[in-house]
Amino acid sequence: MAKQCKYVYSFGGGRSEGTAAMKALLGGKGANLAEMCSLGLPVPPGFTITTEVCDLYYKLGRKYPVGLDRQIDDAIKKVEKVTGKTFGKGSNPLLVSVRSGAAVSMPGMMDTVLNLGLNDQTLQAMIALTGNERFVWDSYRRFMQMFGDVVLGIEHHDFEHALANVKAKRGVKLDTELCVDGLKEVVEAYKGVYRQNSKTFPQDPRQQLQASINAVFGSWNNDRAIKYRQINDIRGLLGTAVNVQTMVFGNMGNDSATGVAFTRDPSTGSNRYFYGEYLINAQGEDVVAGIRTPQEITRLGSLEWAKNNGIAEDVRVSKYPSLEETLPKCFRELDKIRKILEHYYKDMQDLEFTIEQGKLYMLQTRNGKRTAAAAVQIAVDLVKEKLITEKEAVCRIEPKALDQLLHPVFDVTSEKSAKQITKGLPASPGAATGQVYFSAAEAEKQAAAGKKVVLVRLETSPEDIGGMNVSEGILTGRGGMTSHAAVVARGMGRCCVAGCEGMVIDYAAGQFTAGGCTVREGDWISINGSTGAVYAGKVDTVAPQLSGPFGTIMKLSDKYRKLGIRTNADTPRDTAVAVKFGAEGIGLCRTEHMFFDGDRIISMRKMILAEDAAGRKEALTELLPLQKSDFTAMFKELQGRPAIIRFLDPPLHEFVPHDVAGQQEMADAMGISLEKVKEKVASLHEFNPMLGLRGCRLGITFPEITEMQARAVIEAAYEVPGSKPEIMIPLVGNVKELENQKKLILAVYEEIKTQMKRPLKDLKIGTMIEVPRGAITADEIAQQAEFFSFGTNDLTQMGCGFSRDDAASFLKQYVEMGIYEYDPFVTLDRDGVGKLVKTAVILGRSTRPNIKLGICGEHGGDPKSIEFCHMVGLNYVSCSPYRVPIARLAAAQAAIRYEHGCAIMCNCESHAKAAKKAAAKKPAKKIAKKPTAKKAVAKKAVAKKTVAGKKTARKAAPKKVVKKTVKKNKK
Ligand code: PEP
Ligand code: MG
């Protein structure tokens, strides 16, 4: 008989069957529990049901693989043996928690059940064992509530209502004020809730366990978990694991506690003290639920918290003391574990712990979620502390998260004069100004209508994830630094102020009051996620600081990246911003953007209306000095850095008004009739303007446009010493188009050069590769072009046959259905458009080995696409100014990741050397047989998916190609 698969992994008593390396199979929580246990840390015994079971559960139509039940029973026996407890019976009953845990953490998105194993019998045994009747009844009512809500789908509200009734009847406010009889009454009332909902609370613990396992596996595909995975681009996981673990109780009295902690500050990355919160006599959910105010772990943290909240020292000591003060022995042990885990995992850890009657237990460790500022600070510090290498530090930061650091914070003066209405906890840094909405659904609706939204909630829950994602900032009335709002906002990079107790929300009236001020739905407020301040109205913002640890990470990125980084900029201002962010030149200046401003549009329209070349020339004469002055200003900003200037590209109808009022205005400005304007606009109509008279077709049919633009660029370059103009012709699909335009440009250049009596040595002429025909005839085009820039917006449009302007209507569905892995206009479609790019790279270099290759489509700022650009050996990527730092980091990560090969055509020296060596040893027949680069393409050294979802080359790139791409491609 075939050996049965292993579905269940046990841990406990200092031994575990799993390891930290088994995250894919055991989930992050399960793998780390196993590892902590092996490290000898105090972990309550338990077992993990693998993610593979989750996968099978869905594949088998919500059924389990044969043999699983027996493995679970065996694992329970092991736990019983280690703990000396028995599941569901006896004088020392085993109670367990059942928790989810995927390979990538998805906090709060899936289900958890605590105190499982309690029933009418075990309840009595627990009372006899602990002598703490109140605690046991409280645990029972919590379990009944959680089981009913999470496993059986009874409305949470029904239980809350029943609990509130008992509290009201007994005249108490807090749950903790209920006595044993009160809690017994709650349990009876809960049984009533089950009956009203026609559900049965199972007394058999094995049944309870099975139903809870079903619920956790079922929660893998609940709406909020699916949405969370979509938002965070979490893919390729088998599912969630289920962790069943012996319960330990933080609610057994004043020598018991529960808490969550971060080994470094998750907001700033600071390592000044141990950051965390705890509650005495509480269970885990109490800390995150925001019902009680959590207390700091360290005395130092507690003192700072009290200062920030205006709490006097005597009040702090009596009401909110730190763990260091209340349970010093446990604190010291926890602090020791903090160091062990950080050194072991070499990263900031997010810990969950429980203290049961003075004994510390570790319930979880994982790499902590952090803000981008903290990620950068921690990575830099860990290098200094010699825990990680520079390369590891570079790879630790999510490129897109840098965005958080690049966006504005409040202007100090404007913030000073703003009206502060209240203050909460600085839960996630940054500044946000927006209109107030009180529900996630409304926030989503208003954001979709183009509004800037601040979501205001008493507290957030996982259902709010969509609304949080579209909001500029989140403000909550309850909860601490580890509340749902705080954790999720930090993960999303959203500014968040949490636990703002001075704010009274009235959902029904659609308003909140704070500091004597009433803020209604739709009113503007501003929140400072770094200080916790909340202001009425709008507050001005300023650019962020780019020095300190951010600067260090950027320097390290520059050290390791091979790709150059340019920017797409059309104005001197954007150029200056991009240079400040580290751009090494302009990769795309869309000159048409210069024609829209002020009077320029009038001259442009005159040109369009002109009947003949003479008329057009006259209008263009008006545009020449304006365009020239723009170029001069940009060359000055660039201080000798190169600039690719792309000649006029869009269809002319984009320059004329399509509404009657606008057409009348144009007629008045031009001194012609409305009819004439209408006639012209109609004549510009095209059925497929994106495939019509645009790009180089404009310059070919109206050569005077190209001549004017060439003159403007060349004269400006002569005026600003050190300028490096690179003129780029758009939409070339046939080399003859480029020849035509080049001839015109060179004629203008010759004329100016003669006047200036010196050459413009850095002038270059190249083309965009954005038409599929251009890509597959790139060897011919390269004979005329000194550089190519891949216009992947149009290349995607024409390569996939998707209209840039219309594809949104179906692309989302395409991605959801898996037809395309990502929106191809956002992340380059490697298998299709990518092949066109790769083809053009090989062909282009086959006829002009030193041709400069870059990308200027939107993909130039997308980390996954940047990785591809590195892999195919481009020289640089170009992206919008605010994406420049992201591109620097993504380029470095790609270079590090593919340092030793695996690339489609890796441009790193070590890979090239290895390839060369391999080729020299065994002259591969296949490679030798490939006489032309074209054939090499056809043979496709195509990437194959590996388990980890990375791409690896099936074959080394052809020798000839590798040779050409090995040099450091930065420029
Ligand atoms: C492109 O097509 O990728 C490109 C950069 O040009 P544009 O977006 O201006 O068409
Ligand atoms: Mg284009």
Give a verbal description of the structure:
The protein is an alpha/beta fold. Helices cover 46% and strands 17% of the residues. The protein is built from 41 helices and 36 strands. The chain has an eight-stranded mixed sheet with strand order 15-25-24-17-18-19-20-16. Helix 23 links the parallel strand 27 and strand 28. Helix 6 packs antiparallel against helix 7. It starts with 7 loop residues before the first strand and ends in a 6-residue tail after the last helix. Magnesium ion binds next to helix 33.
* Shape designation: elongated
**Average pLDDT value?**
88
Specify Rg, calculated over alpha carbons.
33 Å
Helical region count? 41
Largest sheet: 8 strands, mixed
Instruction: Kindly name the structural category.
Output: alpha/beta
Q: How far from one another are the termini?
A: 63 Å
- Regions with pLDDT < 50 over 5+ consecutive residues? 922-971
Bound molecules: phosphoenolpyruvate, magnesium ion
Percent of residues in beta strands: 15-25%
Helix content: 40-55%
Please report the total strand number as a whole number: 36
Query: What is the spatial order of strands in the main beta sheet?
Result: 15-25-24-17-18-19-20-16
